[in-house]
Amino acid sequence: MLYRVTQSKPSLISAAVGFLLTAGLLSLPAPGYGAAASKPKTVAEIALYQGPDREQLLIEGAKKEGGVTFYTSNTWMAGAVAQAFEKKYPFVKVLVWRSDSKDLLKRVMEEYAAGRFIADVLETSPEYIALLHRDGLLQEHYSPEMAFYDDDVKTKGKNGVLYWANREIYISLGFNTKLIPPADAPKSLKDLLDPKWKGKMSIAGTTTGVQWIGNSLEVMGREYLEKMGQQEVSVQNVSGAALAGLVATGEVPLSPTIFDSNISTAKQKGSPVEWRPLEPVIASVGQSGLPKQVPHPHAALLFLDYIHSKEGQQVAMKGGLSSPRNDIGSLERKFKKSYLEAKYSLEEYEKKFTEWETLMRKLFIRRR
After folding, report:
1. pLDDT value of residue 6
2. 233 — alpha (psi -120 to 50), left (phi > 0) or beta?
3. Is residue 213's pLDDT more than 70?
4. pTM of the prediction?
5. Which residue, 293, 261, 276, is CA-closest to 137?
6. What pLDDT, in 10s, does the model give residues 74-83?
7. Cα separation of 368 and 366, whole Å?
8. CA separation (Å) from 317 to 41, 169, 289, 307, 312?
9. N or C, which end of the chain has less CB nearby within 10 Å?
């Protein structure tokens, strides 16, 4: 049914109000912030809400929701950071699913295609979070912590962010110090070609290893990788974190596809391991976003606030991660870095990644 709005003659009261507004003697509350303003109800409204009671609104909502499901490709984020959030907000149980970036993307895409909406917060490498955004699976959201992050680590929407950085880690040489004295360990990519390392090296068969192939190809050339293929390098179909565990036990003496954060964590536990930058070191950035069909929006936004907060970033740094937050002292890494993901557009990176993956199979898997 359609209704027609008719205008009546202004009353004395409305005329008086109009005069006071014109004279600047009366003001009306801004839309959305007045005492009588309605609370946000839809996911989009909650995600972009900036009212002064936002934190209280999220806490009250999170208490009712009772949990948050976190998909991540980083071990420390999945463990210590998630546990620290639970300690701060004991009324929210964090369910974590951690896997390689590629598997994380595959899982989310399959779940959405099946109409199953499980994840509340997504955290992985830039190229994969960008694919989720490209396919319309991310919800623009606001956080007061946005003010502490530079524009180059945020992908912004109209009123908030679509996804933004929350960690930075580095991929290079990890080795077992009981098997290889630090003085004898490789100090450059070229040193990996020394015959004494033949049959002793492994690389991750996941995204981490593919990135190492790409970095080596760009820095050292195809001939270098051909020679590395003759070094009987074992390709382990495990994550970088799992491979670091094999280095810690001595099952794998050394690997150039190890995250510095995993070695930092292992050393804290007393493992005989060391990490060394073979320049240029691959810098891997972790970025997080809010799914459009988020089951627990209040708890999810509270979690995103926390992992980007100063407190959350300090917990991340204890695991050897570096912080992109601009008001916090990050671990100093004074070596040359390679930002593979930032060198190409999304389409170019997908093409390059496929080329590197094919090269890995040809030089390091089929040859064995």
Report:
1. 31
2. beta
3. yes
4. 0.70
5. 293
6. 888 999 999 9
7. 5
8. 35, 10, 20, 11, 9
9. N
d(CA 188, CA 356): 21
Say how far apart CA 170 and CA 156 lie, in whole Å: 25
Retrieve residue 185's tokens: 């360990």
3-state secondary structure the chain: CCCCCCCCCCCHHHHHHHHHHHHCCCCCCCCCCCCCCCCCCCHHHHHHCCCCCHHHHHHHHHHHHCEEEEEECCHHHHHHHHHHHHHHCCCCEEEEEECCHHHHHHHHHHHHHCCCCCCCEEEECHHHHHHHHHCCCEECECCHHHHHCCHHHEEECCCCEEEEEEEEEEEEEEEECCCCCCCCCCCCCHHHHCHHHCCCEEEECCHHHHHHHHHHHHHHCHHHHHHHHCCCCEEECCCHHHHHHHHHHCCCCEEEEEEHHHHHHHHHCCCCEEEECCCCEEEEEEEEEEECCCCCHHHHHHHHHHHHCHHHHHHHHHCCCECCCCCCCCCCCCCCEECHHHHCCHHHHHHHHHHHHHHHHHHHHCCC
Q: Please name which of 280, 249, 263, 316 lies closest in space to residue 76, comparing C-alpha atoms.
A: 316
Neighbours of 3 (CB within 10 A): 5
Q: What is the pLDDT of residues 215-231, one digit of tens each?
A: 999 999 999 999 999 99
